[in-house]
Amino acid sequence: MGLPSKQQREAIKTLPVARSNQLDSSDYLSSFFVSMLSVISLLLLGPLGTALVAAIGPVADLRIRNAFIQPDGFNRSGVLAGGVLPGPLIAGQKGDNFQLNVINELTDDTMFLSTSIHWHGLFQKGTNWADGP
Known about the structure:
single chain, Immunoglobulin-like, transmembrane helix, Cu-oxidase-like_N
């Protein structure tokens, strides 16, 4: 993508801009309505947002598979836990026992087909030396 041409720059300069003294009451009313609709949507749909996040646990299968991803805008093969990037939230309550069955479904032979899982989010008071690579 290069710089805009002279014709494009001229078109940008001539875009009409509404001045505050050119706005009538209906413009303010529609702006207010859109703002209120946004606030109401956030209040009503906000709690659903956490339910829509990929979450598993405390007993679940975690499938490790290849998929094409574009984390930086360039398509490439990647390794995904649970089919999402970043991996799924592993959730539980205090006192839960976790039983996660990790299933290796890697198929891209241009990458390693073996895998390992390194868990974080566990308290390691006095054992941080054993955290692993």
